[in-house]
Write a structure and sequence with these properties.
Dna Ligase, domain 1, 5-stranded antiparallel beta sheet, 3-stranded antiparallel beta sheet, 15 strands, 20% strand
C-alpha cells in the first residue's frame, strides 16, 4: 500500500510530479499505458518528496548544507569541488529516518516477493536459506541464460562439416515505423520473404540447384540500441538433392550476389506487405542492404547470435553510470571498433529497451529447410551422407546454487509462494 514516503509506480501518473518528480511520474504514466496494451512491466516504487524533506530534516542535514553553501565562493572551483564532496559524504553517512527506512524496506520486500522464493539447504555444513526466484522474462538481461545455452547446444548438434555463411537482411529506415506499429506481422513476413529468397537462389544456382537449410535469428537493435530490425541467417554452403540423395557443395568463399539478394528480397517483402493490407510509405528506397559473409565452421556465428536470444539487448556490465537522472551505457562502434558511450534520461533509456521487447509468443529464432524441426529425417539423411558423427545425448543440468559458507552445491528443498501483490492504499 502507498504511504507518505512510498508510492507504487503503477499508481503514478503525470499529475504526480510534485510528489515524486518528473522522471518517476513519467515512468508511472508509461507503465500504466503499457499495462493497458497488455505489456507486462515489472513493478516498483518511488520515494516521495515528503520522504526527501524528512531526510533533510533528519539530524539537521538541510540546515548544515545551507550553512555550507552560504559560505561558498562559487567562483572558486577547488572550493566548489571540496564542498560538493563534503555534502555527498554527509548524505552517504547520515542514516535514513526510521519511518522512511521502514517503508522502503517493506516496499522492497514486496517487490522481491512478487515471484516467490526458493528454499535451499546445504548437506555439507547444514546451512539453510532462500533466494528470490527470477522473473523468467525472456527480455530480462539476468534470466534465461540456461535457455540460451540449451539453444546453442541444439544448434551445435545440427552443425555439418561444411563451411557456413552469415546472411543478414536489413529493413530500410523508411519501413521501420510500419514495422514498429505492426511488429508480429512485419517480422513474420520478413522471416518468410528472406527465407524464400535464399531458397529461390539455391534452387537456381548452378552449383546447388537443390534444397538448403538455414537458421534465422531476428534482431531489432543496433549497437547503440536504436530500432534497427534485421534478420541473420546461418546458411551451410551446400544442399540436398533429394531425387539422388546427394549433397551438393557450394565451392569457394562466395554464396550469392548481395545486390541480387537485396533486389529479390525487396520485391518479395513489399508484395507480401501489400497483400497483408498494410499501408506502405511512398519514399521506399530502391536499393536495400543484404550482407553475405563467409564465417567458416558456423560455430562462432551461432555463439554471437545466442547472446541476444533470451537475455535482452544489453548486459549489466555495459551500464556504466546511473546518477538518478541519466543512464550511461557503452557499446562498440561497428565502423571504428572503438568503445563509445551514450547517455540518456532514465525514462528515455527504459523506452529504448522496451521497444526491443517482442510481441507475446513471437519466436525470435526459426529453422528452415532440412534444419526445420519437422525435417528430422531429412537432416539425418544429410548427416549420413556427410558421415557426421552424432554426439552422445547429454542431459545437462542447470547450474547449482553454491553455499556461502563452504562453496558446495545447495539442494532445493522447497518453494515459498509469492507474497500477495501490493494493493493501492
Amino acid at each position: 500500500m502507498n504511504t507518505k514516503n512510498v508510492i507504487w509506480l503503477d499508481q503514478l501518473g503525470i499529475n504526480d510530479i510534485d510528489q515524486v518528480g518528473g522522471k518517476n511520474a513519467s515512468l508511472g504514466e508509461m507503465i500504466q499505458n503499457l499495462s493497458n496494451l497488455g505489456v507486462n512491466v515489472p513493478g516498483g516504487f518511488a520515494t516521495t518528496s515528503d520522504a526527501y524533506r524528512s531526510f533533510l530534516a533528519h539530524e539537521n542535514l538541510g540546515d548544515r548544507i545551507n550553512a555550507l553553501l552560504d559560505e561558498l565562493d562559487v567562483d572558486d572551483l577547488a572550493a566548489l569541488a571540496k564542498t560538493g564532496k563534503k555534502i555527498r559524504d554527509w548524505i552517504m553517512q547520515i542514516p535514513l529516518p526510521a519511518d522512511v527506512e521502514a517503508d522502503i524496506n517493506i516496499a522492497y520486500e514486496k517487490v522481491e516477493g512478487q515471484y516467490g522464493e526458493v528454499a535451499l539447504s546445504c548437506n555439507a555444513c547444514d546451512w539453510s536459506g532462500s533466494v528470490f526466484q527470477s522473473c523468467g522474462h525472456r527480455a530480462c538481461n539476468q534470466c534465461q541464460n540456461h535457455s540460451a545455452t540449451q539453444w546453442l547446444e541444439r544448434q551445435q548438434n545440427k552443425l555439418l562439416p561444411v563451411t557456413y555463411f552469415l546472411v543478414t537482411f536489413t529493413l530500410p529506415h523508411q519501413l521501420r515505423s510500419l514495422a514498429r506499429n505492426n511488429q508480429a506481422e512485419c517480422y513474420s513476413l520478413m522471416f518468410k520473404s528472406a527465407a524464400d529468397t535464399l531458397k529461390q537462389f539455391a534452387a537456381n544456382d548452378r552449383q546447388l540447384g537443390c534444397d538448403i537449410g538455414m537458421t534465422g535469428v531476428l534482431h531489432t537493435h543496433s549497437r547503440p540500441l536504436n530500432y534497427h530490425p534485421h534478420i541473420h541467417f546461418i546458411v551451410p554452403a551446400g544442399g540436398l538433392l533429394k531425387s539422388r540423395k546427394e549433397w551438393r557443395k557450394k565451392r569457394g568463399k562466395y554464396l550469392f550476389k548481395e545486390k541480387n539478394l537485396a533486389t529479390v528480397f525487396r520485391a518479395t517483402l513489399l508484395q507480401a506487405l501489400k497483400q497483408s493490407g498494410l499501408w506502405l510509405p511512398r519514399d521506399i528506397p530502391k536499393a536495400w542492404i543484404v550482407d553475405c559473409e563467409h564465417v567458416g565452421s558456423g560455430l562462432p556465428a551461432l555463439k554471437y547470435l545466442s547472446r541476444y536470444l533470451y537475455r535482452g539487448v544489453i548486459s549489466n556490465k555495459n551500464i556504466i553510470a546511473d546518477d538518478g537522472d541519466n543512464v550511461s551505457f557503452q557499446y562498440v562502434d561497428s565502423a571504428t571498433g572503438k568503445i563509445k558511450t551514450r547517455q540518456l534520461p532514465g525514462e528515455d533509456f527504459i523506452a529504448l529497451l522496451l521497444q526491443h521487447t517482442l510481441p507475446k509468443g513471437f519466436r525470435r529464432t526459426r529453422d528452415f529447410g532440412f534444419l526445420h524441426g519437422n525435417a528430422s529425417k531429412t537432416l539425418r539423411l544429410v548427416q549420413y551422407i556427410l558421415c557426421v558423427k552424432l554426439p552422445e545425448p547429454m542431459n545437462k543440468t542447470k547450474p547449482s546454487f553454491l553455499c556461502k559458507c563452504c562453496s558446495q552445491p545447495l539442494s532445493i528443498v522447497g518453494f515459498i509462494r509469492r507474497r500477495v501483490k501490493p494493493q493501492p492504499g
